[in-house]
Amino acid sequence: MQSLFPLGRRSLLFGVHQFLWHPWTVYRAWNHLYGRPDWREVVCIFLHDWGYWFCENMDGKEGRVHPEFGAKIAAHLLGREYGDLVLYHSRYYSNLHCQIPSKLCWADKLSIVYDPKWFYLLRAKLSGEIKEYRLYEKDKQILDLTDGEWFDYLREEFLNIAEVNGRNLVSYHGEREVRKS
Ligand SMILES: [Fe+2]
Ligand SMILES: [Fe+2]
Question: What's the predicted TM-score (pTM) here?
Answer without folding.
Answer: 0.91
